[in-house]
Amino acid sequence: MSGSRIDDHRLGNTHCPLTGCCSRKSTATSEMTGGAIDTALGSHATRLHAALESRPKVRLGHFPTPLSRLSNVERHLAREHLYLKRDDLTGVSLGGNKVRGLEYLLGDAISLGADVVITGGGLQSNLCSLTAAACAKVGLRCVIVHNDMRPEPGAIAGNMLLNAIFGSEEVFIGRVSEEERAAAMDGLAAELRAQGSVPYVIHNGASTPMGALGYVSAALELFKQSQTLGLGLQHVAIVGAMGGTASGLVFGAAALGAPFHVHVISVEYPENELRRRITDLTRGIEEMLGIQPPVPPAEVMTIHDRYLGEGYGIPTPESREAARLLAIHEGIILENVYTSKTVAGFLDLVAGRNTWVHGPAACFHTGGMGALFAQSHPAAVSPRGAP
Fold first, then answer.
1. Are residues 69 and 159 in the same domain?
2. By residue range, what is the domain housing residue 69?
3. How far from 196 is each of 3, 191, 199, 303, CA to CA, in Å?
């Protein structure tokens, strides 16, 4: 089953409760990920589309997501042609970027005969919550390993509440390192195999070549929207955390012949470390898809770490202002860890102080709305777990 479209995924003798969910495509979805792509978009797009179609995949989200013009922010900044790519509206749970990668990760899991998915992260991990929702949708058991203490019943909020709603099983191993968490996940997988289960483990915040395929597809989707709407996007901003989301978009842009430049806004690592992570991941994506981009990935991206402030999860004055601006001018909510810093960087880049960042520009809103409801104050952010 590997390397093919999953039209009827089976878990043992149990059919997916969403009958035909992988084979029936909505018009919006089939425009980008099913059927033939418009050859007018060029040979690079056709080749990339074919490579992505060769991978196992389940259809989870509502794609393409909207590309919304920020008209009120434009007037506020006296800057035209600014857009927000609304991946907070991906359609699973409260939305977010992880839905794209989970389509490929769960497709791979089902193609391998998995009946349980193990993932891990901090208490407010967006990946964990969306994995729980996606597993519920396709009928897979989900076990979440938290490298934190079990919260008091009255303290369950945000993504922790969503995990419970989606019926996931949760294991709390204390405040240990990510490496120790990974070892615990592998140990749990071994125990489940001994019991006759077929586990599939999602490590490293899904920042793997497989998980990054979702944003390779997003690059193709955004390129098509830009062409179809006649926008001619020249610059695109994306969050840079562990590198999975950013590396997918960077590779996709490179594989398309660099129709736009990717600005990676770091929210966690200094520039050199994030560059290393993205470079390693783009090499893995190239090997997985079997295509060599016509433009080196390193040439289509600029990494910006000056918006990081005091570190991961700590808001800056600029990120607070970005969240305020989008709320009062566009009615759009940003959370405090990822999206507010990304949008802050984007707005700074396009506001005129960087004369080479001109022309139509877009920024990805990657969601994280579940965690927002545990952020009662901008500084109230849990210790680092998986994103």
1. no
2. 1-98+207-387
3. 25, 9, 9, 45
